[in-house]
Design a protein that fits this description.
The chain has 2 domains: about 210 residues, Rossmann fold, CATH 3.40.50.300; about 60 residues, 2-Layer Sandwich (Alpha-Beta Plaits), CATH 3.30.70. Helix 3 crosses helix 4. It is of the alpha/beta class and about 300 residues long. Helices cover about 35% and strands about 30% of the residues. It has a 6-stranded mixed beta sheet, with helices on both faces. Strands 2-1-4-5 form a 4-stranded antiparallel beta sheet. Strands 12-13-11-14 form a 4-stranded antiparallel beta sheet. It starts with 8 loop residues before the first strand and ends with a helix.
């Protein structure tokens, strides 16, 4: 007999919306995040990401639709949800006297479990002095403390709003490794960011937000299949470059004497076959470039239509 592991949705929203009078915070947000996923929530500042997170955590009451975490209503049952959720706010505000060591008992009181060992292990991993108070911390150190408090309780869902803000590149990699470890253990990560590169490196699936609405929600692998590749072709002579006819799916962005700078959105095999039939000296084909897709979602309506 063959058994299949059932993957359940840990977070769902249905037509979720929040308005402030005539101003839209978010509108018609439909999400489904599976258990154990690292889910990217991507968009520029002001797109509505933080508003959506505050609705999920019960800090704001929706004006339409609903959100559920672990099957519980995010507004009516938020006090129960918070027992199983770790959260890092986008703008971390901490008491100036707070340290890792004296914050952990406070957090333990709320979580109803001892968190000293887990919290101090995280402090060591993030290279943060557990006895340094917030008033003596740099911005990056304060971010580390916020992360420790969000991660010390091994929760079922971790919601992170711009978690790499203030962290140096090595510490960003350290955090990414830690989040992958947590996801491998079954924890779900909701990772909000305005930076495409970190979402691309870490997440399994991504939703892109524009002006309070979800404009796409799909696996990153699917997005990569649709993404264009940057191509550079160097012909033997300028005459060869001028005479060549680009194949289907290859769009020339710029011609420079004996070189073509182009973008390609087809199968790589068809391009290499075409290149083999040309008089070329060299060529490069880059990896799928998600930046082209991301930019397309943020073109003005007149340009994208």
């Amino acid at each position: 007999m063959r058994y299949c592991r059932v993957v359940m949705a840990i977070l769902t929203t249905r037509a979720l919306g929040k308005r402030y009078g005539t101003n839209v915070g978010v509108e018609d947000v439909n999400l489904e995040v599976q258990s154990g996923a690292i889910f990217g929530f991507l968009g520029p500042n002001g797109a509505g990401k933080t508003t959506a997170i505050r609705l999920l955590l019960g800090f704001l009451k929706p004006t339409s639709g609903e959100a559920r975490i672990l099957g519980l209503d995010c507004w009516r049952q938020s006090h129960l949800i918070k027992h199983d959720v770790g959260y890092l706010a986008g703008d971390v505000r901490l008491y100036p006297w707070l340290t890792v060591r004296n914050a952990l008992p406070i957090l333990a009181g709320a979580r109803k479990r001892n968190l000293d060992a887990a919290g101090l292990a995280l402090a060591e991993r993030f290279a943060l002095d557990p006895d340094k108070p917030v008033r003596k911390m740099s911005r990056g150190m304060r971010q580390k403390l916020g992360l420790i408090l969000a991660l010390a309780h091994e929760s079922k869902l971790i919601v992170l709003d711009e978690p790499t803000s203030g962290l140096d590149p090595l510490m960003q990699l350290n955090l990414a490794d830690l989040l992958r470890e947590r996801a491998a253990d079954g924890c779900t990560i909701f990772f909000s960011s305005h930076t495409l590169s970190e979402v691309e490196q870490l997440c399994d699936r991504v939703a892109i937000v524009r002006e309070g609405r979800i404009v796409t929600d799909e696996p990153l692998d699917e997005m990569r299949r649709r993404a264009r590749r940057r191509v550079e072709v160097r012909f033997e002579t300028e005459a060869d470059a001028a005479a060549a006819v680009p194949p289907e799916h290859l769009e020339i962005v710029h011609r420079d004497k004996d070189r073509w700078h182009a973008e390609f959105d087809g199968e790589a095999g068809s391009l290499t076959r075409w290149l083999g039939a040309q008089s070329i000296r060299d060529f490069t084909i880059g990896p799928p470039d998600l930046e082209t897709i991301f930019r397309a979602f943020y073109r003005p309506e007149q340009e994208s239509s």
